[in-house]
Specification:
The protein is α/β, with parallel strands linked by helices. The chain has two domains: 342 residues, TIM Barrel (Alpha-Beta Barrel), CATH 3.20.20.30; 35 residues. Helix content is 46%, strand content 15%. It contains 14 helices and eleven strands. Helix 1 runs parallel beside helix 12, helix 2 runs parallel beside helix 3 and helix 3 packs across helix 5.
Length: 390
Amino acid sequence: MKATMNERYLKTGIFLAPFHALAENPLLALDRDMELLVHLDRLNYHEAWIGEHHSGGFEIIACPEMFIAAAAERTRHIRLGTGVASLPYHNPFTLAGRMMQLDYMTRGRAMFGVGPGSLVYDAVKMGLKPEDQRRKLDESLDVIMELMQGRMVTKKTDWFDLREARLQLKSYSQPMMEMAVASSRSPVGALAAGRHGIGMLSIGGTSDEALKAHASNWSVYEESARTNGKEPDRRKWRIVTFAHVAQTREQARADVEFGLKDFNRYFSEVATFPIIPPDITSDPAEYLVSSGLACIGTPDDCVRHFERLWKGSNGGFGGVLLLAHNWADWPATQRSYELMARYVHPHFQRSSNELREWSYADASAKYASAGAQSKAAVQAAIENYQRRTG
């Protein structure tokens, strides 16, 4: 399903790993993550996806379901997803049960994002072989899809053994809880998401090369969906990118000096998929912008960045997610999200100011004649009063 420019409606949200510098108080860091979700809820962002990580010291949410349960009590509208639950780390029966409980506790605002696990250190600490993670993703997801639809599963693999397993609750969300699979450069996530007809979360950057890979994976998704009797829908596709905006480009660049160095260090020394190449030392912000990986600029720059993503998708997609990065300090970060909500989002949500602009232009075109008519009416009223009282 493709959308024209005037019909398109991009859902907006964040992908919260989160990323926190080692020097920061972890309690206050988690508090600020929660405060960010409350802030986004007020600004009418549609969704937030919360990560699961157990190693490296930088991404410090280990249980996204717990974080979502707390966030649901502090917010009113924003939808909250696991971004993602790493399926090889869990027995599929107990994980499905926890997510079904969350579906009820959030009154249907929870979403179930899944993936194979991104940090190799987590897998090694659990005795998992990295080469087995994608196979285990498929095996677990096949079972979870059955369980989430109320069916009974008996299945044995080399890492779980389910015997007439069935959840205690039917889905609160109808027809079932919204689900999505993370997809990076490989087609594994696209194949799995398409096979089940659920959403796809494209991560791994937004350079020209990465956008081509994402668009190619969507084609894989479409083929996989149709092969399995599912109808592909681009509204189920989200693309993850970076952005920080301010009133001026100069201010935006100054803002990100606060935390970009720590972020770059983590992705150069720990995370196994470096975002900024090691030889880029003088101006990482310029590299991020020039490569298309990020927008660091004004709201107008961000509009152009999102338009580029739309064009690169070869037909449109359903949502844009900002990878929350803490490049700027907290006040500048809050302001960035607010500027995007005020001045960027309307362009991508059925041109929500279109009728306001038409109404303003219509009134402006009639201003001269309307002013003369109003003036004449006022003068006539004055003269009429004078005649009656004189």
